[in-house]
Each structure stands twice: as structure tokens, then as C-alpha cells.
Amino acid sequence: MLKDWTELAGDMAPAHIEQALDDDGDGVADAAVWARVLEAAGIRVLTACPEADARHPAAADYARRMFCLESLWRRRGFADNPFTDRAEDAERRLRALASGDETTGGDGDAVFVGEPAKVGGLGGLMA
């Protein structure tokens, strides 16, 4: 689970994150601001899927990450947010998981060792 803003450095430049979290203008990310951003992302996850952390941890972690990135970009004051589409998609997925419309188990077709492979018709030189 996401704990520190530095974990987002692979998705957004650290200087941009610090800029978004620097409310007092001293050039340093403010811990209290990060706590509010992270809390808001957590609330958004739980609103979309109340059991997300327990039943769908990977989806919850991804959504929390996207929600934080979206919020940080918005805090920087830019209109075109490159994280909005991914955040909205993550929220839609959480809602679908909560309603049962989607699962985290793949396409639902179980495959067992010993079953024939699902391969299309063979043609060409190997047939």
C-alpha cells in the first residue's frame, strides 16, 4: 500500500510532486498535505468498493496511486490532467468489482493441468 509520496516518483517527476505538496512555499513537500491527499484517495477507493483493500488489494493499490497522482497534478494548477482517464478507469473498475460485474480472476474460464490446450486449428507446414 502506498505510504510515502516518493513512491510516486516513477509516475511523476519528484520536483512536480514537491511543488504540488508545498503549500507554505518553502520548497519542501508538506507532510500534512501528503496525508490529506492520501486520505482523500483512500476514501475514494472505499467509496467505490468498500471491501477493496481486503478482497481486491492490487486494484485498490493501483486506484489509490492513480487518485493521488490525479490530485497532485490538479494541485499544481494545470488544466490538462494526464492522470484523469486512468483514475476514472480505476474507479470504474473498483465499482465493477464491488457490484460483481468484474472479477480479479481473469476471464472466468478455469484452466487445469492435464486439459488440452485451447489452440486454434493447425495449418500450414506443421499440419
Protein topology:
Blueprint: H1 14-21, H2 31-48, H3 52-55, H4 57-75, H5 84-99
Features:
127 residues; elongated
Tally of distinct domains = 1
Give the SSE string.
HHHHH
Kindly report how far apart the N and C termini lie: 50 Å
Largest sheet at a glance? none
Q: What's the short version?
A:
The chain is an all-alpha fold. The chain contains 5 helices and no strands.
Descriptive account of the structure:
The relative contact order is 0.13. This protein has 5 helices and no strands. The protein is elongated. It is an all-alpha fold and 127 residues long. The chain has one domain. The model has no long low-confidence stretch (mean pLDDT 88).
